[in-house]
Amino acid sequence: MKINSVQQQNFKGRLADAATKSVGNLIAEHPVAVAGLAGSSVIAQKIVMSGSEAVIGPVIDIGIGKAITKVAKEKDGRTNQSSKVQAVRTFAQSVGGTIVGVAIRAICIAAAVKGCMTIGSKAGSELGKVLNPDKLSSGAQKYQYSEKMGAWGKALGGALATVVMLFTNFVVDAPFINWINTKTMEFVTKKPATKNIEQKKETQNAKEAK
Amino acid sequence: MSFNLAKFVDNFNPEKDAGKVLLVLNAAGMLFAAASNTFAAAADKNTSAEDKKFLVPSGIVTGAANIALYYKLTQKIMDRLKDVANTHIANLSDNELAQKAKELALAKINKAEKGFLGTGLFKKKPDLIQSMKDTLLTKDGIATEAAINEFKKQLPNGASVMGAFIGAVIGSAIITPIIRDISAYFVQKGMEKRNPHLKDVPYKPYFDPAHIESRRYGHYKKQPLSMKNYMAFTNSKLKI
């Protein structure tokens, strides 16, 4: 157990080393640009994350499928086949999730920024004390006040979006991602997706039954 | 034990560590997504109780391993980058510090003049821009004490945000697919071992209980959840 824990620690340490070594110099060479990142919100994070996922994720899916097929000496190539379908799904999820996710995050952040701007000026309220402990004036110290409340709005708006998306995932994301998945599958295989054919058959059967 | 809203809100204080706020929110999103997928597997009426005994724990283990690895790794990267940033600040002379603070102030003013303000609201506000200029630069165009303090505060915060971005990329584009695909293979094999007929069930990639919006996919429900289907199902990875 101890060995595992040490190995895991070393693995994470090595990964972190590799990741930080290459970007460490960036901080020294471009400190102003890096400092500018401080104001980034969950929207930027989502775009960076999903963008890379849409590009790298499918490649990894297919690579893992090939590796498993080789290691397990699978003759029917089922895992390989599954991985190709998964690659399309990963792409659809990244694209669909980003479009919906960015829109919801933007709405929640805009609402939270407005809310913080109002609450922060109410020095007497409990929440106002947390958001604006230095009692910055929204008039005389307009810049500092706006900057601070803007940062709070981005953080709290991100938290609000996480909760909102618990619901929108099912209502908006799911059908949208399935639609992108079907379209991508049709584009990749150059033929209508199975779902569409089966849906048509189902509708036909239902009509005939009537 | 009463809920203290002010104390709860303070956990998201961006001034303490902007990167950590992003990390915590992303991890919370991943946790909710993994929980809803596992819950969907547990609630699916067409999966046998025996299979659920296998699917649900594997969903929990995979989700937990994925989130834990992402969180720990990202935290490590963020901490190291913050150290690099703090060391860089400590090594700067007063003149260099003032110069960098001025560059940051000018970059912010320039951005604001183009209509992008740090408040998240894209509106050009002349009075706010003027207040920004008065706060960050002297009349001679030299960085003020406030601008220097802002640079000192923002560089480690920016480095931390950069670490959160790198961790998110490694987590979502590398760690998640690897853990997901390998675990899906073993779950698939386990299911096929107990239900040999599943090997012959044609693959229906659109079977996805978590994503069923109506009864349109009713015909799929007549079949047990095959492991190839499970792969699409477990990977539905609802986006948060």
Largest sheet of chain B: none
End-to-end Cα distance of chain A, whole Å, is 64 Å
Report Rg of chain A.
Answer: 24 Å
Biggest protein-protein contact in the assembly: A-B, 100 and 95 residues
List the uncertain runs of chain A.
none
N-C termini distance of chain B: 29 Å
| Count of β-strands of chain A | 0
How are helices and strands ordered from N to C of chain B?
HHHHHHHH
Helix content of chain B: over 70%
The count of domains of chain A is 1
Q: How many strands, what sense, and barrel or not for the largest sheet of chain A?
A: none
**Helical amount of chain A:** over 70%
Structural class of chain B: mainly alpha
Strand content of chain A: under 5%
Spatial shape of chain B: elongated
Query: Which spans of chain B have pLDDT < 50 for at least 5 consecutive residues?
Result: 202-240
Arithmetic mean of pLDDT of chain B: 77
Secondary structure layout plus pairing:
The complex is a heterodimer of chains A (210) and B (240).
Chain A: H1 2-29, H2 31-36, H3 42-71, H4 78-120, H5 126-131, H6 142-189, H7 194-209
Chain B: H1 5-10, H2 18-43, H3 49-91, H4 94-113, H5 126-136, H6 145-194, H7 218-221, H8 227-234
Q: Brief overview, please?
A:
By secondary structure, chain A is mainly α. Helix content of chain A is 84%, strand content 0%. The two termini of chain B are 29 Å apart.
For the structure shown, list the relevant keywords:
heterodimer; A: 210 residues; mainly alpha; 7 helices; 84% helix; 0% strand; extended; B: 240 residues; 8 helices; 70% helix; elongated; disordered C terminus
Structure description:
- The complex is a heterodimer of chains A (210) and B (240).
- Chain A is an all-alpha fold and 210 residues long.
- Chain A has helices spanning 2-29, 31-36, 42-71, 78-120, 126-131, 142-189, 194-209.
- Chain A has one domain (42-191).
- The longest helix of chain A is centred in the C-terminal third of the chain and has 48 residues, at 142-189.
- In chain A, 43% of the residues are buried.
- With 240 residues, chain B is mostly helical.
- Chain B has a domain at 17-94 and 161-234.
- Chain B has helices spanning 5-10, 18-43, 49-91, 94-113, 126-136, 145-194, 218-221, 227-234.
- In chain B, helix 2 (18-43) runs antiparallel to helix 3 (49-91), helix 2 packs parallel to helix 6 (145-194) and helix 4 crosses helix 6.
- Chain B is elongated.
- Classes of the chains: A mainly alpha (210), B mainly alpha (240).
- Chains A and B meet through helix 1, helix 2, helix 3, helix 4 and helix 5 of A and helix 1, helix 2, helix 3, helix 4 and helix 5 of B.
